[in-house]
DNA sequence: GTGAAAGCGCTAACAA
DNA sequence: TTGTTAGCGCTTTCAC
């Protein structure tokens, strides 16, 4: 059965030492071609598959990374981000462990515990919170962390970010260039720090185009849930920083013209 | 630094044998309470974190499972599915490795190779294709596989499925109950086997309600891409099994009334 | 209840 | 180029 054979079995079958098998499989160029062929042949016949754990233990690297992502998110954007990470890491010979962390709770424990245990070689943090372990900062760890989307550079974690303000302005600019004058800004959940920045970007675009900021109306996606219940239908939610529009009141439809 | 201490260090610090440390940490009830306290204390002071790989190697189980999912999917449905798997597996002490497989290519290799290598204890297959390894079926493997959404039971893989036809009929039934008579069926990409079944379910509902099947019009999400280019805007794509509507031609808007 | 010792399966010096 | 050997860090008999 597949996976039953050990390296020693292959060695025996090929009539070589176990270390030669190891080399033939990991560093083929260090082995005589004919020997190598015998070994590969034997391995194939035995349906030999190397044991990853043994290798990982011995080498001290797991070729596994972890993506710590928000627990309750099924957004396509996150999927795309994961796909991107996965693609690059796969190309580099790594696999990705998914860690959905609960925002509220002591997620850090959950994250860094297995991470430090040597299960993963590094962690991608897609979260507004910096993961912790037993009240110690990640800096006290050998574990490489990288922040994504959220800036943790002040915590000593290199972070890859999107310039939300710039690109929001850019997006709004496109609409304006198309001749649109009334812009609806649909924000995500109420706690999205990114939305505030993006909103500013949209206003930037309005300013730049010499259009009144009051032509931007805001609506939160979260409307359907919490706040919506307390508000008359058709009334848009406005963020604190959003200038109040004059009457007639803006609708909450996603029109952009 | 966190993670630098070994079990032997803890043993030395606590003045016990290494095996006692192991027990104290894995099977506390087998160790004298006072001894255990000393050990725990020492472990804490040394910021000891057990090495997962060593444990995995020794125990022969990795407490890791793999989810093999379609490569190009960022659908919220998939995220939800993953979240569900993750939640249950986490509760059971397992973590999830993400494997995005390319549909077309010999994905099976990619999946089962590391799987068989002892990296994971089991695999969730969310794919229309059964993963293979070196032209051998999964049955020749010790690795537990479970099919999700796609039925692989004929290949000997237990599968957890959604009764698409039933629930599509149910959904359509709700619309009908609300008084709607014109139903738009928005399908996914052209190759979705599920869509055909769901479409049948919608027609079931029409039949049951005594409504004409011609009141169901189909539009594919994929319109925007491949087929759409060759079709006049506003014209809906119709699946082969979908009865042709009478004029006026249905629009492709997602209206349901 | 605790310790000593034998590995899990593999890799990497070091020799030959 | 190939073989011998010593572990990686942990769990688990088997004694005491």
Can you put this structure into words, describing what you see?
The structure is a homodimer of 257-residue chains. In chain A, helix 5 links the parallel strand 1 and strand 2. Chain A has eight helices and seven strands; from the N terminus they run ααααβαβαβββαβαβ. The first copy, chain A, has a five-stranded parallel β-sheet, with helices on both faces. In chain A, strands 6-7 form a two-stranded parallel sheet. At the A-B interface, helix 4, helix 5, strand 2 and helix 6 of A face helix 4, helix 5, strand 2 and helix 6 of B. Strand 2 of chain A pairs antiparallel with strand 2 of chain B, so a sheet runs across the interface. Chain A binds a DNA duplex (16 and 16 nucleotides) through helix 2 and helix 4.
Produce the secondary structure layout.
The structure is a homodimer of 257-residue chains.
Chain A (H helix, E strand, L loop, with lengths): L6 H8 L3 H9 L6 H13 L6 H8 L4 E7 L5 H16 L3 E7 L5 H13 L2 E4 L19 E4 L10 E2 L3 H14 L5 E5 L5 H17 L6 E5 L37
Parallel strand pairs in A: 1-2, 1-3, 3-4, 4-5, 6-7
Helix pairs in contact in A: 1-2, 1-3, 2-3, 7-8
The structure holds a DNA duplex (16 and 16 nucleotides).
Compute the CA-based radius of gyration of chain A.
27 Å
Strand order of the largest sheet of chain A: 2-1-3-4-5
Task: Assess the beta-strand content of chain A as a share of residues.
Answer: 5-15%
The general outline of chain A is elongated
Q: Helix/strand/pairing class of chain A, anyone?
A: alpha/beta
Mean pLDDT of chain A: 81
The H/E string of chain A reads: HHHHEHEHEEEHEHE
* Helix count from the secondary structure assignment of chain A: 8
Question: Largest sheet of chain A at a glance?
Answer: 5 strands, parallel
Greatest interface and its participating residue counts: A-B, 51 and 50 residues
The level of helicity of chain A is 25-40%
User: How many distinct beta strands of chain A?
Assistant: 7
**Unreliable residue runs of chain A:** 222-257
Assembly level: homodimer
Termini Cα gap of chain A: 65 Å
């Amino acid at each position: 059965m597949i996976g039953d054979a050990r390296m020693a079995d292959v060695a025996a079958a090929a009539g070589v030492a176990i270390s030669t098998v190891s080399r033939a499989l990991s560093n083929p160029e260090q082995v005589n071609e004919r020997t190598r062929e015998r070994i590969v042949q034997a391995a194939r016949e035995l349906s030999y598959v190397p044991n990853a754990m043994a290798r990982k233990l011995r080498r001290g690297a797991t070729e596994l990374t972890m993506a710590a992502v928000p627990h309750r998110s099924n957004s396509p954007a996150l999927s795309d981000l994961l796909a991107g990470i996965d693609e690059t890491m796969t190309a580099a010979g790594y696999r990705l462990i998914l860690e959905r962390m609960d925002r509220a709770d002591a997620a850090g424990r959950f994250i860094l515990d297995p991470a430090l245990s040597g299960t993963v070689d590094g962690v991608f943090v897609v979260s507004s919170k910096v993961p912790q372990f037993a009240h110690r900062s990640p800096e006290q760890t050998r574990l490489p962390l990288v922040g994504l989307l959220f800036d943790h550079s002040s915590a000593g974690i290199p972070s890859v970010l999107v310039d939300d303000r710039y690109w929001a302005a850019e997006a709004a600019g496109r609409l304006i260039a198309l001749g649109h004058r009334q812009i609806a800004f649909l924000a995500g959940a109420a706690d999205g720090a990114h939305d505030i920045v993006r909103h500013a970007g949209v206003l930037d675009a309005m300013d730049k185009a010499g259009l009144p900021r009051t032509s931007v109306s805001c609506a939160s996606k979260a409307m359907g849930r919490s706040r919506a219940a307390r508000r008359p239908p058709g009334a848009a939610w406005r963020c604190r920083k959003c200038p109040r529009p004059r009457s007639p009141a803006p609708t909450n439809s996603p029109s952009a013209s």
